[in-house]
Amino acid sequence: MRNGRIKYFSILGVVLFLYLTTSVYSLLICTYILLILPILSLVISLPGMRHVDVEKTHEHFIAKRNHLAYLHFKRVPYKYYPSALIKIDYEYIQTICNQKNSYKVYMEDEQTDIILLRNHVGHCDLTITRFRCYDLLGLFYHTTRCQKKCSMYIEPNLIDIEQEVKKLEVFVDDSELYSPYRYGNDYSELYEIRQYRQGDSLKYINWKSTLQRQDIYVNIGSQPIVKNVLVTILITDDFNENDIAYDYFHSLCHKMLNQEIDFDIIFQNITMDHYVIYHINCYDNYKDVLYKMLSYKIPSHQRYSLSALNYQYGCLYTATSKGIEEERLGGYYG
Hints:
The chain is an alpha+beta fold. The protein has five helices and 18 strands.
């Protein structure tokens, strides 16, 4: 280390000055010792300097925005060989806001802790790019280059929202769900079995009931329905506004899950040419989708509408920095 070298050569200079001015034999011995010490320090520390390692751990794999989290760097010594100060260079990258910062930390003891900066929601990668291990006197060092990575998700915060949400029952033709209260043209789920009426198709005769009751009975199909709403987020170029939008999005999803309302999430990242839709029916399922959203950068100003989705959904919630926009079949609300 530079400070160690300065101290060493300063002491050596003082000893040489006293030796030249006083000619005392003890000063000569001290001079020899000072000249030999760096060599001894290097020989003793070299195995440890070359083979020492650094481990990293963090308290939480998941953290909340603007909450404190600590990263621990721990020294892994090589056998019984000593090593002194370790200088660690690392990079801290936040995916969504595309921020990359380089930092340095000095570890003098067996472990040192740093506070991670978590200004924005998203996925963070911390990579140790290299570390330098110094000898006991801090005069020489050995550099080890590496790519040690660890990751962390920074979740949005839960806030109180006034948005009222409820289950929908919007009847459409293209659905995997069926209403037991309304008849339709899909016979994969039956609405009822009744006597034949003029105009009923004979190909839907229920032969079992017809033979039992000695009269013609026909199957009546069910009407497909959609009970889920669609949720998305509007991303802008302002990272602070995006944090607020994610807070609204996160809080809305939690509110619907608390009320046992199934819903779908739609989003698109910059690496895809099309959007993806995920069905949400439990907290674990929602967490998986949320972490996918936080791992990629979502295109800015990307909006969706029910008409563009061929009216497959009865309601669309869009979380923005100003609140939650609601679109239902027939227009916008709220």
